[in-house]
Amino acid sequence: MAGTFRGAEVAHKDYDPHAIEPKWQAVWDEQRLYSVTEDDERPKKYVLEMFPYPSGDIHMGHVRNYSIGDVVARYFTMRGYNVLHPIGWDAFGLPAENAAIKSGTHPAEWTYANIDKQAASFKRMGFSYDWDRTVKTCDPEYYRWGQWIFLKFWERGLVERKSSPVNWCPSCKTVLANEQVIGEGVCWRCKSVVEKRELEQWFFKITAYAQELLDDLAKLPGWPERVKTMQANWIGRSEGAEVDFALCDAHGNPTEQRITVFTTRPDTLFGCTFFLLAPEHPLVDELVAGTEHEPAVRAVVEAAARESAIERESGEAKKLGAFTGRYVINPVNGEKVPVWVANYVLMEYGTGAVMAVPCGDQRDFEFARQYGLPVPPVVVAEDDPLLERLRGQKARVVDDVPWEAAYDGPGVMVQSGDFTGLPGGKGSAGVKAVTAWLEERRLGRPAVNFRLRDWLISRQRYWGNPIPAIHCERCGLVPVPEHDLPVMLPMDVDITKGETLADHPEFYEAECPRCGGPARRETDTMDTFTCSSWYYLRYCDARNDEEIFDPAKAAYWMPVDQYIGGIEHAILHLLYSRFFTKVFRDMGLVAFDEPFTNLLTQGMVKKDGETMSKSKGNVVAPEEMIAKFGADALRAYILFMAPPDKDLEWSQEGLEGIFRFLNRVWRYVWEVYEDAGSGARGGEAEALERERHRVIGKVTQDIERFQFNTALAAMMELLNAAGEYRRTVPQAARNGAVERAVARTLVLLLAPYVPHMAEELWREVIGEPESVHRQPWPEWDPELARSREVEYAVQVNGKVRGRVTLPADASAEEVEAAARALPKVAEIVAAGEVVKVVVVPGKLVSFVVRA
Ligand code: ANZ
Ligand code: ZN
To answer: φ, ψ for residue 176 (rounded to 5)?
Structure first.
């Protein structure tokens, strides 16, 4: 049997992954086994793992992410699908520049060397990628289409250049998107505290799609709820009203000038006792200039500039405010309300002005307490004793609440003029009534507000995709004409000195494409998230140099059926990709709304309870484990140790255990094919055959639900049953056909997990001519699988007290319950205390009972 293939010397009675694995990798590579094309005869599956950043060596997180994807891809191939399973690199970005500054290697050199290294590691892991479709985002053949997208977005009014307060990371020397400011207002990459600066920047108008990005989450039943909730919160839709307040002049007389606020609670208008402006609000200067209030207000403005947006918004920062000396008129009761500046009001949200209602908003409550401002109750809970006094009370008679905190739940409106008595609270009848009243008098209108901001995409860094724009003094901002793409990123920048494109006259000196006059090329590059927002579409047609992709090919492969990646991308990458997809749809490039039908977010790989990381010094290097146990064992181990969405605690013993299991499979298949039984079918052979059907059914069901660990456990059970059969039934009585069927089944079921070992056994030991990875998934008879029952002996304190018969797939709990139900057992158990119960699957239940 051995010797049918050119690697004959490898087929050996001992399992030697180091010989087998490189051998089959070379064969698969040469035969382009995983290269696919569109095929209308077969249903398709697009299985995709988030592409890696080429940081250097691969780590266990990579091994896990890509092993999960590989099992899914191989499984669907065996189920008869035409499976697209590509890989590429998210290759622009800051670490390459930082490495260059440190070590003197050019970012391109560093990046491509790392890509080669990772590609070799992925091949060494035996991942079934279609290598012909690889993309590297730093290749001009790729980034040129990113520039093309920029131009198309620009044509569609989705690009904007504007001055705005932006997040500036002093250590990365670049601006950051809101999404890249994390935790307590620090840079997502280097964790430095982010500052606010006023700068001209480029934006993608993702807010134009805010409502749809929110609504379409409902079209994603295959996404984890957690991720959808995070996205919904990030988009942050609020329903409420805009309300116009008339500004009073310096003498306190109402003027025509209006300041508008956004509020979710117009029902609380009668409780508005002060009015707040953001420190950056353009009116602030004008209101206080030259007045006695100017110094105090300035102090608040300056202090706020030093705080991060996150700190200010969270309301955790100490509240700071100052009176401007001016007033506005509350439109519902004509009352004069003092205007303050407060650090917790953000310029970027709503209108940058707030009607403060201290009885209903906790931040306003704390502010009022701090500065001694009145807190009249206007919405009171049904069970609040205060309501007895104030029910039906239209005019304000109480100016303070006996509460520890603001109350923002549902309640009854009080001290609210003709609205008194209406239900109050978010979305209440009171909200509707007050809004309608305001609208009739043109003092307000219903409004929806989103927390989502436009996406700031410009970066003042070298290693990124150049923005295809030209600044001309005569013509203003001019797009680079499509036929001039790509704007090539120059390679001769001295990056070790931290140079950017702005230091490179050969790059930025340009001619205006419109008037031909001297002009300056844009020197900012795009946020790398622009590169990763559409790579999955490029995979559908990766080598196309005429268009971004052939829409027909994208229509065949897309959407991605199964996307797999880390939870850290729950907001940024996934939201941006959804946004790009919707714009592409509106451009007519694709015909679907959502790019990723199913999403799996994999858990972390931990060691001693902590996430593996270089800084913690607890990294287990995949290379080292491959050198010891082979890639197959590492793959199977990482899939066996935990369900994919849960964290996985590293254990070398676990890996050794899997290695031993693989060795047992190896020997079993060898033995069966050397010396299968010669007997006829009998009771035990039939039981083994039933077990085989059961396990196929179980493995199939488990893989479909991504329970790779329990699927592997079922294969172990099959091997145990088969080994037992070999040990206990003499050769002459064993049924060879059943034994061989078990061996073949094990190899086929294991093929997605341990592709090299399965291939070697399939072709060299079993002697099949075609790759195991081209075989159909084994079939099973559910009837047969179900009918199997096993008898358990029931022991109490070592003595057999009876027997119970149960279906083979009964759980340990079910077996225990059935045993406890035996009258004799129940009697003994009732008389004493059960200190231990052991269930040996398929055999025995044993109780230890203390009298
Ligand atoms: C009056 C009021 C009374 C409010 C009340 C709340 C409770 P969400 O739900 O997150 O959309 N607000 C509006 N603009 C703001 C800004 N630029 N900075 C800080 N806070 C701002 O929050 C909307 C509420 O946040 C608005 O409704 C406003 O306070 C405040 F019992 O108006 B509310
Ligand atoms: Zn010009």
So the answer is: -125, 150
CA distance linking residue 600 with residue 533, whole number of Å: 18
* pLDDT tens string 663-721: 999 999 999 999 887 887 778 898 999 999 999 999 999 999 999 999 999 999 999 99
Ligand 1 pocket test: which of 263, 310, 363 has the largest number of ligand atoms within 8 Å of its C-beta? Answer: 263
- Among 29-33, 163-167, 429-433, the range scoring the smallest mean pLDDT is 163-167
- What is the three-class DSSP state of 313? helix
Listing DSSP states for 145-164 in one string gives HHHHHHHHHHHTT-EEEEEE
Q: What's residue 289's pLDDT?
A: 96
Distance 491 CA to ligand 2 centre (A): 27
Distance 406 CA to ligand 1 centre (A): 13
Average pLDDT for the chain: 93
pLDDT at 313: 62
212 burial class (0-12, 13-18, 19+ CB within 10 angstroms)? middle
Ligand nearest to the CA of 452: 1
- What spacing in Å lies between the alpha carbon of 197 and ligand 1's midpoint? 25
Instruction: Give the chain's end-to-end CA distance (angstroms, integer).
Output: 61
Mind giving me the DSSP string for 178-227?
GGGEETTTEETTT-PBPEEEEEEEEEE-GGGGHHHHHHGGGG-TBS-HHH
Dump pLDDT digits (tens) for 262-288: 999 999 999 999 999 999 999 999 999
**Ligand nearest, relative to CA of residue 407:** 1
How far apart CA 459 and CA 177 sit, in angstroms, is 10
Residue 311, pLDDT above cutoff 70: no
Q: Is the peptide bond before 559 cis (omega within 30 degrees of 0)?
A: yes
Which bound ligand lies closest to the C-alpha atom of 474?
Answer: 2
- For the stretch 121-130, pLDDT in tens is 999 999 999 9
Q: Three-state SS across 55-83? A: CCCCCHHHHHHHHHHHHHHHHHHHCCCEE
Residue bearing the CA closest to ligand 1, atom 26: 263
For the segment 735-791, what is each residue's pLDDT rounded down to a tens digit?
Answer: 999 999 999 999 999 999 999 999 999 999 999 999 999 999 999 998 887 756 788
Residue 830 has pLDDT above 80, yes or no: yes
Over range 361-372, report the average pLDDT. 97
Provide the residue count of the chain: 851
Q: How far is residue 726's CA from residue 419's CA, in Å, rounded to a whole number?
A: 85
Q: Which residue has the tokens 């250049």?
A: 161
Q: Count CB atoms within 10 A of the CB of residue 741.
A: 18
Q: Is the peptide bond before 486 cis (omega within 30 degrees of 0)?
A: yes
**Strands annotated E in 249-282:** 254-263, 274-277
Ligand 1, atom 20, residue with closest C-alpha: 345
Mapped onto helix, strand or coil, the DSSP state of residue 228 is helix
C-alpha 149 – ligand 2 centre gap (Å): 23
Ligand 1 atom closest to residue 263's alpha carbon, by position in its atom list: 27
For the segment 326-338, what is each residue's pLDDT rounded down to a tens digit? 999 999 999 999 9
From 244, 312, 343, 361, give the residue whose CB has the most ligand 1 atoms within 8 Å, as the site to mutate.
Answer: 361
Report the nearest-CA residue for atom 9 of ligand 1.
238
| 520 CA distance to ligand 2 middle (Å) | 10
CA dihedral 34, 39, 41, 47 (to 10 degrees): 50
- Closest Cα to atom 29 of ligand 1: 263
Of all protein residues, the one whose alpha carbon is nearest to atom 33 of ligand 1 is 263
Please check the confidence at residue 3 and state whether its pLDDT lies above 50.
Answer: no
| Ligand nearest to the backbone CA of 265 | 1
- Ligand 1 site residues (CB inside 6 A) read 238, 262-265, 268, 278, 345-346, 349-350, 352, 354-355, 357, 360-361, 408, 449
Q: At how many degrees (to 10) do helices 683-704 and 736-750 cross?
A: 10
Per-residue pLDDT band for 182 (boundaries 50, 70, 90) equals confident
Distance CA 710, CA 642 (A): 9
